[in-house]
């Protein structure tokens, strides 16, 4: 059977300085989801949030002009505290794209710069969310509106303050060697970084940021996002956790192929390669039903891109950040070698 290649959901890492609004931005995007049974609803994954393209279009409006072939966006949150450099680097390595969240009133801070350096190292395309615009003195809130609509409603003085703050960011980015502009003035995504003014609290600018991300994915990475959905799974371990009733588990972001219960997998431990077998694959249940025993729903298989919890024997000693690969059709030695190289 010929292997079908499909375009998988791009993984978008949300990075930035502590308290600049990364988690709030994702909360607001999730909160705008309609009832979870409806098709195209935004869902929570292990360590990630999946926004299907339907939901993007619903929020984005302006998107309809672009022909869309990306199935959606999978967002990963990262902590901004300075102690979590490795977590951020891991997120950065995994990401196809990123949002760097900057409090527009505070400007660049140390972890903003660190995030930009990580993204530069990995050559990851990104967009800047100039967040907390609702805190600009005199700002008049227009809930959930695209940026240009809400900007048009502000008085000249407020518009002036916003422009100045955006240009401060442009200046900082330029010092670091990045060309940038307010997103609505960017015509070539390859040459300029888009700055999108947003508010994670009022939803202003969120349609635009989703639109810019889809635009980036569509124009610059549809080739790199082509995966074979029925190929052996490959992913990155975000966390290694003991879970009551499940034993040791891995929180995994799967970025290629699929993973099935019973699959042989290879991961990296502290000082050796670990071979084991997937016992169960667990998805988080919607947030409304979080009785401890029923936090997870068991599934038989999962296809990239996705965040999933993997339970398996022999996981003690797996290191966070480790690559994970499934073994299929007897290529065990090859896979072990690959995992060894990727650690
Ligand atoms: P860390 O995970 O600790 O790095 O922080 P974070 O970047 O995830 O920030 P978080 O979303 O937790 O927000 C920090 C604080 O800023 C919270 O009190 C939010 O309510 C507030 N906040 C975030 N975004 C906005 C915004 O757009 N406008 C306003 N007014 N407050 C915001
Ligand atoms: Mg946070």
UniProtKB/TrEMBL annotation:
Keywords: GTP-binding, Initiation factor, Nucleotide-binding, Protein biosynthesis. One of its GO terms (molecular function) is GTP binding. GTP binds at residues 16-23, 77-81, 131-134. It comes from the Archaea. The keyword Ligase does not apply. Residues 7-221 form the Tr-type G domain. GO terms for cellular component: cytoplasm. The keyword Nucleotide-binding applies. Belongs to the TRAFAC class translation factor GTPase superfamily. Classic translation factor GTPase family. IF-2 subfamily. Function in general translation initiation by promoting the binding of the formylmethionine-tRNA to ribosomes. Seems to function along with eIF-2. This is Probable translation initiation factor IF-2.
């Amino acid at each position: 059977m010929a292997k079908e290649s499909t375009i998988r959901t791009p993984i978008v890492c949300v990075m930035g300085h502590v308290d600049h609004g990364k988690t709030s931005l994702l909360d607001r995007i999730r909160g705008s989801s309609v009832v979870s049974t409806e098709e195209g609803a935004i869902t929570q994954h292990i360590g990630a949030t999946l926004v299907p393209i339907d939901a993007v279009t619903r929020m984005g409006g302006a998107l309809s002009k672009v022909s869309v072939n990306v199935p959606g966006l999978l967002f990963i949150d990262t902590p901004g505290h300075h102690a979590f450099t490795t977590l951020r680097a891991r997120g950065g390595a995994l990401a196809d794209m990123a949002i760097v969240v900057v409090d527009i009133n505070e400007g660049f801070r140390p972890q903003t710069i660190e995030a930009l350096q990580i993204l530069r190292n990995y050559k990851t395309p990104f967009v800047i969310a100039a967040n907390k615009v609702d805190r600009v003195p005199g700002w008049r809130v227009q809930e959930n509106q695209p940026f240009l609509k809400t900007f048009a409603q502000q008085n000249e003085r407020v518009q002036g303050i916003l422009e100045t703050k955006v240009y401060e960011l442009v200046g900082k980015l330029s010092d670091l060697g990045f060309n940038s502009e307010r997103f609505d003035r960017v015509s070539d995504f390859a040459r300029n970084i888009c700055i999108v003014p947003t508010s994670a609290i009022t939803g202003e600018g969120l349609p635009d940021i989703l639109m810019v991300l889809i635009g980036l994915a569509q124009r610059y990475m549809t080739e790199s996002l082509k995966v074979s959905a029925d190929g052996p799974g490959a992913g990155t371990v975000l966390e290694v956790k003991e879970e009551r009733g499940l034993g040791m588990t891995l929180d995994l972001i799967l970025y290629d192929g699929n993973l099935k219960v019973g699959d042989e997998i290879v991961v990296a431990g502290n000082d050796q390669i670990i071979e084991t077998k997937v016992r169960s694959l667990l998805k988080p249940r919607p947030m409304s039903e979080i009785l401890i025993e029923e936090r997870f729903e068991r599934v038989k298989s999962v296809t990239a891109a996705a965040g999933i919890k993997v339970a398996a024997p022999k996981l003690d000693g797996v290191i966070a950040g480790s690559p994970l690969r499934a073994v299929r059709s007897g290529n065990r030695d090859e896979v072990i070698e690959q995992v060894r190289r990727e650690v």
